């Protein structure tokens, strides 16, 4: 895959980056070099290689997933002007 100057200018316009003709020419050669490197990586045989999330083997620390009310309902509603059974009470706004 190769990139031409028109593609570079189009991508720059979509990214809202101002690019003149000289910069577009330079970017074209740079992007073609990057794409050439990516094509080289595509040739590497990775069959039988397990995907990694880290180079070092680690296990995730997990906590039990339990639903609680936080045991702080009284503290939360303590400063409310009006509350009942740990619920905030507000004036009626719809008739």
UniProtKB/TrEMBL annotation:
It is an enzyme of class 6 (ligase). The keyword Transferase does not apply. Gene3D superfamilies: Glu-tRNAGln amidotransferase C subunit, N-terminal domain (1.10.20.60). SUPFAM superfamilies: Glu-tRNAGln amidotransferase C subunit (SSF141000). It holds the Pfam family GatC. Coiled coil: none annotated. It catalyses: L-glutamyl-tRNA(Gln) + L-glutamine + ATP + H2O = L-glutaminyl-tRNA(Gln) + L-glutamate + ADP + phosphate + H(+); L-aspartyl-tRNA(Asn) + L-glutamine + ATP + H2O = L-asparaginyl-tRNA(Asn) + L-glutamate + ADP + phosphate + 2 H(+). Keywords: ATP-binding, Ligase, Nucleotide-binding, Protein biosynthesis. Its EC number is 6.3.5.-. It comes from the Bacteria. PANTHER family: GLUTAMYL-TRNA(GLN) AMIDOTRANSFERASE SUBUNIT C, MITOCHONDRIAL. Allows the formation of correctly charged Asn-tRNA(Asn) or Gln-tRNA(Gln) through the transamidation of misacylated Asp-tRNA(Asn) or Glu-tRNA(Gln) in organisms which lack either or both of asparaginyl-tRNA or glutaminyl-tRNA synthetases. The reaction takes place in the presence of glutamine and ATP through an activated phospho-Asp-tRNA(Asn) or phospho-Glu-tRNA(Gln). Belongs to the GatC family. Heterotrimer of A, B and C subunits. This is Aspartyl/glutamyl-tRNA(Asn/Gln) amidotransferase subunit C. It comes from Roseibium aestuarii. The lineage of its organism: Bacteria, Pseudomonadati, Pseudomonadota, Alphaproteobacteria, Hyphomicrobiales. The gene is gatC.
